Protein 1
Amino acid sequence: MQMSTGSKKRTIEQLAATVSDSTDFPDIDTAPGLRTLDTALRCPICCELFSGPVTLRCGHCFCSLCIRGSLAQKQECPSCRKGEENEGHLRVNPVVEEAVEAWSKARPFILQLLHRGGRLSGSNSSSESGPSNKRKRSNPDSDSDIELVAPPSGHKTGIGSGTVFSKPQEPMLAASPAETPCPVCGKTVKHEIINQHLDSGCKTFHLNNSKTAWSKIMGPRVDPGKNKQTQAKGKERSLSVEGEALPKVSYDTLKDKQIKQLLQDQGLATLGNRALCIARHQKWVMLWNSNLDKAPKNRKSKSQLRSDLDQWLQEKHESKSKVVVEDTFGHQKKYESEFKRLTEEARPKKAVSSQLSDSREATSSEAKYTDATSSTSSPVKLLSQSPQSPHHDGDNNEIEVL
Amino acid sequence: MDARLRRVNKEIADCKNDKASGIKIELIDESPFHLKGIFPGPEGTPYAGGTFLVDIIIPESYPFQPVKMKFITKVYHPNVSSASGAICLDILKDAWSPVLTLKSTLISLQSLLCSPEPNDPQDAEVAKHFTTSKGSFEDTATYWTQIYAGGPGKKGVSTASSGDGKDEVAMAGLEKAHVDQFEALGFQRGKVIDVLRRLNYRGKNVTQISEDRVVEELLK
């Protein structure tokens, strides 16, 4: 399993230095509570500050996206293993979200104060401050606590800064007279449902949408009618404005065409085989629904979600692609001793029983075979497949040799 | 940088900052998803004083799928394969939870060494040895720790000078007298050790297994 995520050589220290975690703060004796506070506001699954925090019935809190990923594997709380949890049990936790928001603003400031009070040393800005629009991130510090942190204004990304409000919003319908901005969440809501919208705690209230919801649950109906393109577009717009959760789909009951239609409805690419389409749609539903668990002002736009999806697919693709050995001779030479050893180990009995010349021939032909296979799988894998010593369990072949 | 890589980096940093646990993580090659875990053998067990290396592979869907771990260091333990180092531990299989980390998993391995579970064995022969004669099992485990994990050894004397034969007998957890007895009948020493180990010719079992049965096995 050799993954080429980075071409340059990395060390443990370099890897460890690219993260911001609770140990940015001094220990409990120097600054009581700070480290614990930072840990408490982090999702136990991704170890980042909560992004769209949701609570399960047992009370444990996770990022919406993380817990959805976890529940897809096993329907239990990852922390206490209380069972029978599903996505329907998730409850948005706006208090934690607010706390995280405040903390992500306060964090760099407190760190700065701490360092000003302590020793000063050269700043060591980390390499992580790429286009990380995936999650709101606090100041990406190295884990060393003797480092000078740049002023918060220069560094802040994501929700902490004032840029949120100027964030390009989803193409909203121009506020027609029938619509009015909600005084609480700022979203445009139809005038006739503004009261219900406010009563439901700014969860968008829909009138007469049960029909569309049912049709979605029962599977998409591919309308043989005209003008599919505009139909899809209209749906997309209404989805992004209304912020309606997408239902889970049982893909096994759908035909390829219907799955592609589902993707098209969401304005996603329909390339690739069935498995890829399903994976794409599943991930999209997860991204979309977890985005809705955030406070409206922290939500990502549809295009951002789309680029998240693309990134995810790309990473998935990269890690899937096998390592291709270009210089086969060099590769053979490099692992020659390893191959020889493995071949020897793979057939300890024959080497004993047969004539020496025979075994030599066998070994050389085996070596060729191993070389051929090794170009696709790494030598480490081979190592794990072959018995490493004559001590393996229940092996009575050696007795038969007598 | 994807979520998996960020999390792995955090876990590596976590182990690096925690000096108290004695757990270390190192890179094997350039990939951050293929690592080597190092932890000390727990005190008060046959593994005390040894240093145990674990091969760690982070799967693509980590942390939603468990990490793949196996011992690099040879360990004599009912739940660890004495040949391949494969580990039988529930949290590495169906009891995995995404809140578990590399550090907590390595600590679990450490405690697995403290409390073997012979009813759910990975290595059946070792498990038999453990259940029939625990004292002899512990001697063997201590010996393996000394040879492979750099442990202090029971007698504190290096046995390297005493030749390969003694090593093999002690490694298999057998008694020298028994091996000598059958070797005197004209069988190869290696074969004798292998058969006796397979028959679990140890402790109380010695009286239950007749010599004829052993010879029969040797002649097969």
Note: The mean pLDDT of chain A is 68.
Protein 2
Amino acid sequence: MNNDLLKARLNLHAVLRNLEDLPELDTRAAEMIRAWRLAVCFSVHGGPAATLEFSEGRCRHHAACPPHPDVKLFFVSPAHLNAMFAGNSSPLPLKGFSKLGFLKHEFAELTRRLQHFLRPEPERLAEPAYLRVHTLLTLLTGVFAVPHLAALDPVATEIAAATPRGSLQFVVDSEGPVAHLVYSSNGVESRKGALEQPSACMWFADWPAACRILSGTLDAFTATGKGLLRLDGTIPLIDNTSLIMERAAGYLA
Amino acid sequence: MHTFDYPQSRMLFDRACEVIPGGIYGHFSPAPLGQTAAFPFFAARAEGARFQDVDGNEFIDYMCAYGPMILGYAHRAVDDAFRNQLALADTVSIASPRMVELAELLVERVAAADWAFFAKNGADVTAYAVTIARAATGRRKIVAIRGGYHGTHPWMQAPGHHGIAEDDHRHCIRIPWNDFAALEHVVAEHEGDIAGFIATPYHHPTFGDSVLPAEGYWQNVEALLRKHGIVFILDDVRCGFRLHRGGSNERYGFHPDLICFCKALANGYPIAALVGTDALRTVTASVFHTGSYWFSAAPMAAAIATLQELDHVDAPRLLEIYGRKLNDGLIRIAKSHGFTLRVTGEPCMAYYRITDDESQMLHQRWCAECTRRGAYFAPHHNWFVSTAHSDADLQRTWDIADEAFRALKTAA
């Protein structure tokens, strides 16, 4: 298995993708990108590509590079991209040399803001607003990691193959449907938002419960017994998805 | 109809979580119940076909402890046999005469058995059977049915489960149930390397419909295994003594080399048995397998009393009659409310699923509504009936089911 390729896909499509949601959840991030109008493309030789498109105070993540991005950052290999995400390497800018200052300062600040929420200091989790953003982004990272794990992690591939076809909705009681996964004969797809008739539903009683369950500080057996977690519908869909999702930590730790 | 609350169960669960990982572990965990709030977690007492939880709510039990209870809770003859043996000797430094008597009884009633061996749980004997198959053949691979359950030993766990290494199931090949061609294929593909084939008498997975053996399936399997010298292991842990007094293979007309019994063997007292043919006697004696409580005599006395009582009441016939009546009634009641209840597997331990909603959320809600009115239904495991279930229980169950369907419609 090529760990670097899977890790690169997770970095681009599960972690970096969160920049799409961050400005909608965090006023400071929204303020940062308010005037940005550009498309930044990440392109990996022999690997994945992704684009972050900033305009009108919003960020959109695309799983490909457009023909004419404002900035194109090239990586010679998946390992090169992963090294940049670990803070140990720099990309090769192929386009947008005039934006290098922006990338080094403003864009870097935005990614640090994302990291601030994804890698929490324990005391920050006492703040409900922070906990909500952290947990939502963690959940979305997990949900968007599943299709890539199911495609490239050998054990996850085996689990996904044994998973019933259908859809799994993630719901936080106070928030409503957050995201969902669809298992079909074409593979696994992840999306934000609600499904009309999911095959299964993983329901969290509140954000603190979701945070503890997703971080592994509260097990699902205890949580279901205490009414903090409910597994509705096709339970093997939930069981198998949890097993797949847990494998993301081995690549992103 | 009164619906139940569970404050004492919940308080106990909170205490349990402080000192037991997950609060309640394994197949008793509330996690797969779906509508967890509708279920009791802790029982205070049990008698006949009913148990009472710690909140004083009474349930007609259709899980029968997930199989061990077959004659009813607190069965006088079985409990007396257990208590009498306990007063004489239970776990001592040498074996008990009850062990010989129980082995003789099993050899007498189970046609495929020339000897018996005792342990505590189903997995003790499924694991032993597989080891014996490997010792007898000098081969590595075990063929099992996809979705079949034979315990929680690593070799039987699905990939990716916590604490399971890839190598743990490297020599376990899973094939679809009732697919004789698939078995032929793996036997050809791994010619000379397959030690054993293990399966339940019919397919009864959790989270899925049960499927009976296709016409001629077992006979074809047996012939193929004989031809290739593969040890034929029947996991009769769940079905054993419910379908036939001599083992479920008698019901379906085939002849395994090894049969694993547990659950109903002693009506709830802890004991499992592996029985086998004379051809495997010597190799079995050479495969060392033991446990601290595997010579405990009181459960052996309970098993002897259970087997005698099962014969006395002709248990398989009674169970089938009750199961058929229960199922026909539930199907009819569901239909009267516009729902379709699918019932699969053998009538006395059938799997139930409302098919009007593929997600099974509707089925989970119905089981929850029944349970909080006093009929204990787990939504994703086959149910069990016992010889203690009465016509009064049957009528009460139908009444509960009827009101539960009405509650579903009201909620909708």
Note: The mean pLDDT of chain A is 94.
